[in-house]
Inverse folding.
């Protein structure tokens, strides 16, 4: 008995799908590489290694961090995107990858289009921080002072393309103020200069200065994220004064486009499981960061929105890589 051609093609397609389905169900059956676009020892690397440690236990397979530093995280992203979409090469994407889309127009890939989002891992709180001698005590007073004296107030941050740098430019754009932006190559030196009074106000990561803040050697005007944080009770957000302002760093797992949905779902479930563990949350808190949870679809939409937002800021500020 002959089989109609349409039925034959359906059966053939189903047969071809079976090995893929079996591989997805068996996933993972070998070690996973987690690429990091920054050198060992930095905050992104430390969070990635912590995540890999907990994921290894959750998945029953080793998750091995591999550093691919360079071009603000772009080299690591490119290596991941070129890897087979089988779930065995992942990347710790960051807010800088969203920024790079507009800051580096000659990239060989589109970060939004060419990835399979899995899950964010953490959000990085940023603070508007000041030397105690700085006269404005709130973000509202800083904005008022800048409008009274345009171009006469310096504000420091780490270098071009970093979340604090972009937060300064977003504040200038949304609040309509003229601040003199002073970027530093290293955040540690920026904090040292704040403490010494060479700089009066800056935007930086909470983890590099929270000890100085709690000791009273530095003062916080506001948080740059959408919500207040437990680490600094009572400190308001910039958005409570400047409507629509939201700027913070983040990192999360992504894979090459075409990674099977079953593999993405398995990895997403594993990330959510470790994010509920008190030890994991406590270890993140020690680094000055907090859990950020979204579904793969939500994470993809978030990355696209971040990319669009920072492209507008880059155009407004006329930013170019030096």
């Amino acid at each position: 008995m002959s089989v109609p051609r349409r039925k034959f093609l359906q059966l053939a397609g189903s047969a071809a799908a079976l090995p893929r389905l079996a591989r997805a169900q068996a996933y993972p059956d070998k070690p996973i590489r987690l690429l990091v676009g920054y050198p060992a020892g930095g905050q992104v690397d430390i969070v990635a290694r912590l995540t890999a440690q907990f994921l290894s236990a959750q998945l029953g397979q080793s998750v091995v961090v591999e550093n691919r530093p360079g071009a603000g995280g772009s080299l690591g992203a490119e290596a991941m995107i070129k890897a087979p979409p089988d779930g065995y090469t992942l990347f710790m994407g960051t807010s800088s990858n969203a920024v790079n889309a507009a800051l580096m127009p000659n990239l060989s890939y589109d970060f939004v289009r060419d990835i399979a989002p899995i899950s964010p891992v953490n959000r990085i709180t940023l603070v508007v921080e000041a030397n105690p001698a700085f006269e404005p005590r709130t973000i509202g007073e800083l904005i008022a002072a800048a409008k009274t004296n345009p171009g006469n107030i310096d504000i420091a941050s780490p270098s071009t393309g970093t979340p604090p740098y972009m937060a300064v430019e977003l504040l200038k754009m949304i609040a309509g103020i003229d601040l003199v932006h002073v970027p530093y190559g290293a955040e540690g030196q920026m904090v040292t200069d704040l403490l010494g009074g060479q700089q009066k106000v800056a935007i930086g990561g909470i983890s590099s200065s929270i000890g100085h803040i709690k000791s009273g050697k530095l003062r916080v005007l506001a948080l740059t994220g959408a919500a207040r944080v437990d680490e600094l009770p009572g400190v308001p957000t910039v958005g409570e004064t400047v409507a629509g302002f939201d700027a913070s760093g983040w990192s999360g797992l992504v894979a090459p486009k075409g990674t099977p949905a079953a593999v993405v779902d398995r990895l997403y479930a594993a990330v959510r499981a470790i994010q509920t563990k008190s030890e994991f949350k406590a270890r993140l808190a020690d680094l000055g960061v907090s859990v950020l949870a979204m579904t793969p679809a939500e994470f993809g939409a978030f990355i696209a929105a971040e990319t669009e937002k920072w492209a507008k800021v880059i155009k407004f500020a006329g930013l170019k890589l030096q």
User: Anything to note?
Assistant: The first strand starts at residue 32 and ends at 36. The mean pLDDT is 91. Residues 6-124+249-317 form a domain with the D-Maltodextrin-Binding Protein; domain 2 fold (CATH 3.40.190.150). The longest helix spans residues 5-26.
